[in-house]
Model the fold of this input.
Amino acid sequence: MTYQSITIDKRNKGVAWITVDNPPANAIGEELMQELEAAADALTADDSVRVAVIASKHEKVFLAGADLKGMMHNSGEWEDKDNIIAKQSARMQACFQRFATMPKPVIAAINGHALGGGCELAMACDFRIMGKGRIGLSELSLGLIPGAGGTQRMTRLLGRSKALELIFTAKQLEAEEAEKVGLINKAVDAEKLEADTTVFAEELAEGAVHAMGLAKRAINASDGPIEEGLEVEANAFSDTFMTDEPSIGLAAFFQKEKPQFI
Done:
């Protein structure tokens, strides 16, 4: 696929950077979603890629939300013919879910504001590392609610009470506060965001990435009944033996060496 709004840069140790460049504010429209989905599929299928990073080319914004103006009549009234708004919500949810279920680690390198849809995409990633900007679900300040998975993902990340607080107040958090409450994994100096993300991504890439994907599948199943999650875990545990990672890891363990999975 020829990309118009993103670039893919494969770097050392199988780390691939997806950089979004959709001026003026990286708004999440249909074309960008199609490109993000194509990138997720391509990197999943590429055995040389071990970790994916999503970043923005823009200095002030990670990603913006949906095109709200496109959902309105010229008169300023909302257009919901044929349930368009609900379909748009489900469309964004499906796009972000591709990264939540991608069988490789996915990191959001947040180098600007990640509000609304940008926050929802970041929460769909496995890890969030943030420099400057603010992050949060700001939809309630517009009289809306999060519609691209935000109510579900924030609750799972932070718990019901904190999710209610942040969503109801539409609070926008600086990186340090976002780290404190657990919305992001790490706050870093803005000028060190790329370097610090690279260090972490390469550390992951040196690990048992196939097993990480299976663990991710099992962890994702923890949101449902425990019996279902345990079944997924058992099957994923069995699947780990379909690669050479257990042989490498166990051999290194008995020899008291660091396993070399790459």
The radius of gyration is 19 Å. The CA atoms of residues 28 and 234 lie 37 Å apart. The beta strands are 6-10, 15-20, 51-56, 61-63, 106-110, 113-115, 127-130, 134-136, 173-174, 186-187. DSSP finds ten helices and ten strands in the chain.
